[in-house]
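Please produce the structure of this protein holding calcium ion.
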Amino acid sequence: MHLLVVEDEIKVARFIEQGLREEGFDVATAADGESGLAKATGGAFDLIILDVMLPGRDGFSVLRELRAAGVQSRVLMLTARDGVGDRVQGLDLGADDYLVKPFAFAELLARVRALLRRGTAEEAVLLRAADLQVDLRARRVTRAGQLVVLSGKEFGVLAHLLRRAGNVVTRAELAEKVWEDLQNTPSNVIEVTVYHLREKIDRGFSPTLIHTVRGAGYLLQSSPP
Ligand code: CA
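Below is the modeled complex.
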């Protein structure tokens, strides 16, 4: 398992690095946001431990850039501030968990192990396309930071389109995966659901995410088909 620790406080960084090495992890370090971003983008890390307070580019900015670049490594944020706002901001930007400083090494290790298990055993909890974010566990959808309330079927269609982002999804596939009834789901029921879904997540936002591919089905991507 390859881990990256981005932390400017040398004592803290060394404490984490040595502890994780003793547990058998392969650990790289970076002492500021810019070098952390470069290492995280270049290397396939299973987990990145990312401090919020860094000189120059802070942890939130690093995380935003990483997710925008499509880096899917698990991210555990370290914050000295106990503010709810910081934690929410980190999670909204795509962090997988956070830990408030100061912390005991045993607690860090427990979080690291839990995240690595989750990373391999479960699918991603958060799906994204442009500024659309879908939390599959909480069934929470936001577009440009605004909460979007969807019906159960609308949510199912959106989650399926996101999982298959960049690929054309047929109405038959939606009938099977979302309605769980390939034979008896009228295509106009699917069309109406997609219509309502678009009204909620695409109307008034840019770029358009859900596209109709004539004669084939639907396609979710942030550029025109
Ligand atoms: Ca720091």
